[in-house]
Amino acid sequence: GENVEQHPSTLSVQEGDSAVIKCTYSDSASNYFPWYKQELGKGPQLIIDIRSNVGEKKDQRIAVTLNKTAKHFSLHITETQPEDSAVYFCAATIITQGGSEKLVFGKGTKLTVNP
Amino acid sequence: NAGVTQTPKFRILKIGQSMTLQCTQDMNHNYMYWYRQDPGMGLKLIYYSVGAGITDKGEVPNGYNVSRSTTEDFPLRLELAAPSQTSVYFCASSYGPTGRDEQYFGPGTRLTVT
To answer: How many CB atoms lie within 10 A of CB B8?
Structure first.
């Protein structure tokens, strides 16, 4: 079935460095790609998203790129800070048999930013 | 606004017991969702609702039931708990459908079945 692969599963960087997390998806009809940040003991929170008609989107230190041909999208965090430490999930929409859309999530990346 | 609230935060069940996980949102959102998150895995959709009185199955609905009698509430029912249902459960809501509007998540319920 449709799935989303996410790499790496863990990522450790020094404060101030950049972090990149990559995801691939299988459904060519996917058209919406959100990224969620999950802090310990909390629910996921949307940090940035991109739609299939856009190749890149930025929001301060966070950016997302999308390559529809290759079916992959990436999250880029620049000038990382300790408070960026969390688990990050990518997701992609798929169309169900009933015609509605649902999100399929990657397995997550645990990012640790060392001071 | 409190957003999406879930109760309880933690629960331990014995095999075969039943329970209801509560979810309430105060954002007047039409769409509500239940996900489960197993260790080292992404979230998987259990059930969702597009409005009061309408529910539909997600990816992993077996062993669960839902109802949506009001816009605000979307309880998840486990009838005969099994160890395979040990997980963290997240409720979410959105104003519009997936792909158009952001989903807001609750803080989760950690369930252990022994």
So the answer is: 11
